[in-house]
From TrEMBL:
Membrane-crossing residue ranges in chain numbering: 25-42, 54-77, 89-111, 123-147
Organism per entry: Lates japonicus (Japanese lates)
MARVEL domain sequence ranges: 18-149
Keyword Transmembrane helix listed: yes
UniProt xrefs under PROSITE patterns: MARVEL
Protein name in the entry: Myelin and lymphocyte protein-like protein
Membrane topology: Multi-pass membrane protein
Family annotation (InterPro entries): MAL (IPR013295), Marvel (IPR008253), MARVEL-CKLF_proteins (IPR050578)
Keyword list, A-Z: Membrane, Transmembrane, Transmembrane helix
GO MF term list: structural constituent of myelin sheath
Primary localization class, coarse: membrane
GO-annotated cellular components: membrane
Amino acid sequence: MAATTAQPMGSLPSGLGICTTAPDIFYLPELVFGGLVWILVASTHVDPANPLGWVMFVSVFCFVMTFLWMIIFAAGGHKSSSGWAAADFAYHGLAAFFYLSAGVDLAFITIGKKGQEFRIYQIDIAAVVFAFLAVLLYFIHTILSAIRW
């Protein structure tokens, strides 16, 4: 008979422990960079509405969901269940994919606005940079959540 090599999952952090563990330490930077994308895109004229509407949806959705996710983890609502570890992996993977699609859309729109007002162009460039930093943070969080799961 073959012995199983599965190891029990470590406990998920709660309380201030989310500020010291590897994947969960990314909650605050994800909120900061996602919030900056939201603010910067909203501070300009949202034109064209279709791709920039997607960028706004992604930034607002991910900001709210990451905040709620952080509150659930901080309050210990997960009760160290492996289901929550899997859900953490799935959510951050989805958020990374959403932000990647939004970042590409935003970069494409920004390239098209090169000849327009320089201040708006600079704000759009900053939003693109922060969107891709959010992609990086969510992707790293996804990888570390998969390892923890």
